[in-house]
Amino acid sequence: MPSGQVVATVANPWFSWDYLERNGSDVLRYTQQHASLTVQAVLIAFVVALPLAALAHARPRLAGPVLAATGVLYTVPSLALFAVLAPVTGIGRTTVLIGLVLYALLVLVRNTLAGLQGVDPAVRDAARGMGYGRLRLLLGVELPQAVPAVVAGLRLATVSTVALVTVGVVVGYGGLGQLMFRGFRSNYHAEVMTATVLCLVLALVADLALALLGRALTPWRRASAAATPPATAPQEAAWTS
Amino acid sequence: MDVLTEAFQWLNDPLNWTGRQGVLALTRTHLEVSAVAVAIALVVALPVGLWLGHRGRGATVGVVVANTTRALPTLALLTLLAATGWFGNTATALACAVFAVPPILANAVTGIGGVDPDARDAARGLGMSGARVMWSVEVPLAVPLIAAGIRTGAVQVLATVPLAALVGGTSLGTVVVSGFATQRYGKALAGGILVAGLCLLVEGLLAVLERVVTPRGLRSRTRGASSDTRPGPRRGRALPVAVGAPGGSNDPAPSP
């Protein structure tokens, strides 16, 4: 009975500045780990996705299989994927990174492909009429036109990657997820909450940075954006798997 | 491959399949928890989504809700619930329902809101009431998107439930987590294969179901669209682009 009361009266706040002060270096380390994993995963996925999407665009017959393959990878739950990868790539960073890249791939390929296919046929025709070859058409006309869709895909992939990194705890490399889990284990509310909030902040900051990047990359859209209501990217509105 | 044989040995052991913590029992719990979660999400999201779509507003609401929940890590919500004292399968179902709401809601809103205005107008002209327009015109036309949303939500729940094993829930994820915790990677691998198999199986079944519930007139169109996994080129959805086109010549305009 007395012990129960002691437990009940011990302060266990959800938000605690004290916690941050005492564990600042720890929190910083895990945040860095989280951020670096996210950036690396999205960059690698982007580098892989761009040629894949271009290939699927150039050879429409390949579009179905490419999307289906990435879709199957996307359906496999992260926990299962880590379990399957761990024996091959070991416990640690590589496993998490590969998993994250595979998940980001679907979103990026799908959005890039949608952007490339959404190019106005008249524009494509005009470029061809001006003597543009296949490659030059892709690099000079279609890709710039697809930038908004690509950026939308990047934002989506980044935000979901930030959330997904936490699952890396099962292989001991989960960034802020590590903190979350540790806090849960030791029933330390402040630790769980701090990690959660930091995750959300990280996602928000990354999303904002990418949105600004997209704006900077497409100066020609800025004038029209002022005149017309911001047309949210159509591929963001509906949620299909 | 040592781990691989270990995994197959684990899968081949009948003792691992039966009993209270056996694969069969765990699969059943997994499916039960997922079903409850999807049911909760349906009850919450479908009426709201249909109503918002019907009223022609809330397209942005759907997108905003969808995008913010994507940023919230599943694990965070599960640990938060667990740390508050919500353990077990009820908490898991609740947390997973939260993640199934956005796809269902967003697709219901865009599905209903994207119905061809002409069709809606025609229905009105025939003297249909608002409710009738919704039930006999808008909903049937939006079925492919709504069904796709439910499928996405259900598969997502199925993929999320294993995570609850980290905070003490029981599901097929228990096999993976306990395998990792005891450094028996063969067991973890076996669990991973089981979880992945279950998800792919259910995804396939739901895809078939989705096709069955789609009204016949819409099937050929959704079939063509399923290759790029985006809802088909619905005339209604092309409208915003068409409106925006005069302002920005660089926007992709519908082909003449």
From TrEMBL, chain A:
Q: What is the lineage of its organism?
A: Bacteria, Bacillati, Actinomycetota, Actinomycetes, Micrococcales
Compartments (UniProt record) = Cell membrane; Membrane
Q: Where is the ABC transmembrane type-1 domain?
A: 31-210
Q: Write out the transmembrane intervals.
A: 37-55, 62-85, 91-109, 146-173, 193-213
Family from the record: Belongs to the binding-protein-dependent transport system permease family.
The entry's protein name is ABC transporter permease subunit
Supply the Pfam families for this chain: BPD_transp_1
Sorted keywords for this record are: Membrane, Transmembrane, Transmembrane helix, Transport
Q: Does the keyword Chloroplast apply?
A: no
From TrEMBL, chain B:
How is the protein disposed in the membrane?
Multi-pass membrane protein
Coiled-coil annotation: which residues?
none
Annotated PROSITE patterns: ABC_TM1
Q: Where are the transmembrane segments?
A: 33-53, 133-150, 157-182, 188-209
Any idea which UniProt keywords this protein has? Membrane, Transmembrane, Transmembrane helix, Transport
Q: Give the main localization category.
A: membrane
Q: Where is this region: Disordered?
A: 218-256
Q: Matching Gene3D superfamilies, A to Z?
A: MetI-like
Q: Where in the cell is it found?
A: Cell membrane; Membrane
- Ranges for domain ABC transmembrane type-1 come to 27-206
Q: Which domain of life is it from?
A: Bacteria
Q: Which Pfam families match?
A: BPD_transp_1
Entry similarity comment:
Belongs to the binding-protein-dependent transport system permease family.
Protein name (Swiss-Prot/TrEMBL):
ABC transporter permease subunit
